[in-house]
Amino acid sequence: MRVHRFAASLAACLACAAPAAAKTLHVGAEGADANEKLQEALILAEPGDVVELGAGVWTLTDGLSLDVDNVTVRGAGTKDGEGSILDFAGQQGAGEGLLVTSDDVLLTNFAVLNTRGDGIKSKDANRIVYHELRVEWTAGPKETNGAYGIYPVESSDVLIDSVYVRGASDAGIYVGQSKNIVVRDSIAKENVAGIEIENCYDADVYDNIATRNTGGILVFDLPSLPQQGGHNVRVFDNIVQDNSTPNFAPKGNIVASVPTGTGVLVMANRHVEIFDNVLENNGTANVMIVGYRYPYDDAKYQPLPQDIAVWDNAHGKAGFAPAFPGGADMAAAMGGAIPPVLWDGAGNAIVNDDVGVLSLNLPDVSTPQSDAQPSPADLKGDAPTPLPGVTLPESMEVKVL
Amino acid sequence: MKRVAAAVVAALLCASGAFAVPGAAPNQAAIDGDAMPRKLSEFGVFRAGTSEPVDALLGYTLHTPLFSDYAQKQRLIWVPPGKQATLAADGHIDFPVGSMIVKSFGWPEQNGGRPVETRLLLHRAEGWTALPYIWDADGKDATLAIAGRRVPVTFRAPGGAMHSIQYAVPNKNQCKECHSKAGTIVPIGPKAANIDFGNALERADFARFFVRPPTASDPMPRWDDPASGSLEQRARAYLDVNCGHCHNPQGSASNSGLFLRWTDPRGVNLGIGKRPTAAGRGSGGMDFAIKPGDPDHSFLIYRLESLEAGIAMPELGRSTVHKEGAALLREWIAQMPKDGH
Fold first, then answer.
1. What is the mean pLDDT of chain B?
2. Is the ipTM of this structure higher than 0.95?
3. Does B181 touch chain A (CB under 8 A)?
């Protein structure tokens, strides 16, 4: 995989000549006007330019934004004491720390801390690359933390590579209403949702670690949004373990309903593949497959999980503390733990892992969960034709060599 | 040099009698060029050394204005001589290239009532450009603040309470966040349903600006005047003007699925029974943006009444709660039937 990527990237490098007039705009962290100076650089940058963030702690009072195509924002690193640390603890305005609304942007090698709202958001920003970033709420899980750490939305071609996100009160890495997405080599820790792919088409989530979140990796589809009918998502080669942090999302948000101890959760969606992951120590379930069980007023919405396929995952301990109503009784009745795979009985799924599956036998999503009739289920079968996987434009891969 | 050239051209045009403009006119070359002049005076919008606009610009107000920390606003339109704005089918006004929209913000208690900032929206050949200027301490000119700035402002709210705030002058990108339609900058305020020319309609040169007067047969009401519309109409006008520029399918908040324009249908996408999408702690622990009959459990109200970044809506341009506006929306939600969707 790596070799292949390198070769492709090298070819892309040779094929394109560097822009002639590209320049580097260096901005330093020091000085009372650092916020304004940095924002000015982000406005005055021209396509091809690099905005270079000096090392040190930046004390920022307002959200930053970038609206110029093909700009790189590069810091000196993500570590305290040596990197470029953007500290938003005193933020007075804006919904996020950094907002990107232009195409072909690379964000790399800096940290965004303690934003009041979201960490880094990109909207309608095609071919964006998030690489080697840290987005963190440093006091750990708190309901007053911002919602999303890394938040691309309504974009085509999204790459999130080698980032670290901790403490988001919704999702650490959240990709919404986008197409052609790769999330890899990243760590999501102590968020409500570690990684969430919502209302998206064509996503690959691999080589990540999702640990000590409430839920590790979520694949959702929700009603009444401009892009819905989420489909074609592959979750593979991830380590999803010990997702045990009590849910700290503000009530009302959909992730507030995620039971503590969830590994991989699919809600609604069509054609999702979950394979070759290490799944362990998730107290509710290593894998959960459910329908959207709320009232909705949207004739076009499809609330069932369909064509979900689960195979070749390594399962550790799971189901020992099922944190949904009635879960504890089910575990007690089954000798202390429910099986590692939990299905509410809605839609259809193939589970070829060599572990037990518990069905709640609630095929109709309008039936309340209190009507559950739990029983073991055998979902073994022939998986649908495998998805081809996501290929990103080479112009993106070359940026993360 | 450019200004001299522009003045000569203007003089020639006047001499020909074709496009007479009364008195001093704005510097068309500055509007049309691609520069971002450091001083506002370059544009010739205001009489030299003052914040008094030249007579050639056309003043207007809005039936229902955007709330901006109780600022008083002065709005001006410029259309280049020989060109006219037209009214599009959907009610927005199409301004020709070379047009300029000017908006100044001030408070009676601040700077002796002189403006604090002036924003320009310039229609250049490549599209609209937004430039924010902050007035200098002596009030004689204003200086470009392309990256925005927080300015301490003290003012008296309608109830009599004094407020001291860090007023946020938006940066160039933030201008676009609100003025964005499918990723490009467009004017927001001047649309037929909401624009009010008042006495300017009587001006001899009014017809110079428009092919025909841009008025609507069914105008939006004044949000605070019950004689101008029903509670529902006034609430919808308030939402349109304060929220609809982002909350529409082509705006900055398109992904929210919450659409609040005057013309959007009543239903889930208006917020009624709509669960939070990406609200985070902006949900305030509530299930719905609008819960009919229950404003205290409608997080649309919660966000309007908050001043905290990450919760407060609108995200930009507000450092004060608009109590009167929130009260209107509370009243509107309170009278919705509880079982009605």
1. 90
2. no
3. no
